[in-house]
Write a structure and sequence with these properties.
Number of helices: 13
Order of helices and strands: HEHEHEHHEEHEHEHEHHEEEHHH
Largest sheet: 11 strands, mixed
Shape: globular
Distance between the termini: 47 Å
Strand content: 15-25%
Radius of gyration: 22 Å
Helix content: 25-40%
Length: about 350
């Protein structure tokens, strides 16, 4: 009888392992090599190693669409921007076609596993231009993003809040697709760029190979003022403030400009989202595996630490500003790992 029980237990273990390995999930992310791509591939790796699931990752996707795909149950997991859930809940922007009622219903289906910074906004110019402050963008040609989308809105806001300059009135904004962004900077079609990036950024070595660069912080007085603070607390935003020494890896070809050795800007926040009906044990297992993997991820990816993977602080990520909620399984995983989850992020 004892041997039968042992054999039966072994069979159950094998069956459980096989079931975990047979579970297949779909996941989408944005630009290859960016923060969403890194998070997705890391989750797929740790899910496989821990025999939680096999995750098929597709990158280069438009997150506006994939957020809706998860909300409607067509995709299991997607990277997403927190501002997108907010806009969906109001039926605004790219979700205006849904209407307020349907947009609200769909947004309530979304739950976060873990947050991270998608990118921060940087003012960059060749030193030869003499642009070493936001004020000096006046009268200049400035690359401020693609023809439409969140990056363009953010760049315009950062310039307006930092120097009071308006696109088309005080400076000429140049909008091109990301594939052309490096070319127009290098051939001096623009005097400066205000664009998102990680730290370190993949485009900076290319820029520095063509000449010495200024990277300019938002002025302290402006940043601490009411207008900037309101912006930092808007849905999808969070403060990004750190010692200029964290940019020292760029070397002597990059001059970091700040009046007090602290670099100040805004981060666009996001994370990986699932449907609220995802099995609680599955959501917990995925989140726990991701949290445990953070030290390895930071060793493998130079910019991982700056993107705040492995933290769930509401102020650092602006989770609650956009009405984002963590999955119940994710909440348990974070709390069991010793992190405090804000009450407003539970639900």
């Amino acid at each position: 009888m004892k041997s039968i029980l042992i054999a039966g237990a072994a069979a159950l273990l094998v069956a459980g392992s096989a079931q975990a390995q047979s579970l297949k999930l779909t996941m989408t992310a944005a630009t290859p090599g960016g923060s969403t791509d890194i998070a997705a591939k890391n989750l797929a790796e740790v899910a496989a190693v821990n025999k939680i699931a096999t995750i098929q990752v597709q990158t280069g996707k438009t997150l506006t669409k994939t957020m809706r795909d998860v909300a409607e149950g067509r995709t299991d997991i997607t990277a997403g921007a927190m501002i997108l859930q907010f806009l969906m809940s109001k039926g605004l922007g790219p979700y205006s076609g849904l209407g307020k009622e349907k947009g609200k219903q769909l947004s309530e289906n979304l739950r976060l596993l873990y947050p991270y910074h998608l990118a921060s906004i940087y003012l960059i110019a060749f030193q030869s231009t003499g642009i070493d402050s936001f004020d000096k963008l006046k009268g200049k040609n400035v690359h401020n993003g693609p023809p439409r989308g969140g990056a363009l809105i953010a760049a315009r806001q950062v310039i307006r809040l930092s120097a009071g300059l308006e696109d088309g009135k005080d400076y000429t904004g140049k909008q091109v697709a990301w594939g052309q962004a490096t070319a127009i900077f290098l051939d001096r079609s623009v005097d400066a760029a205000v664009r998102p990036g990680t730290n370190p950024s993949e485009y900076m070595p290319i820029y520095m190979a063509a000449g010495k660069i200024n990277i300019v912080s938002v002025p302290k007085a402006k940043y601490e003022g009411a207008a900037w603070q309101k912006y930092l607390n808007a849905p999808g935003n969070a403060p990004a403030m750190f010692p200029v020494s964290e940019l020292a890896h760029y070397g002597e070809n990059a001059r970091i400009i700040s009046e007090d050795n602290m670099f100040r800007t805004v981060a666009n926040t996001g994370g990986d989202f699932v449907h609220k009906n995802m099995d609680k044990k599955l959501a917990k297992a995925l989140t726990a595996a991701f949290i445990k993997s953070i030290p390895d991820l930071q060793r493998k990816v130079p910019f991982a630490k700056a993107q705040r993977y492995g933290t769930v602080d509401n102020k650092e990520h602006g989770i609650c500003n956009g009405g984002v909620k963590l999955h119940a399984g994710a909440v348990e995983a974070w709390e069991e790992a010793g992190h405090k989850v804000a009450d407003c992020a539970k639900g």
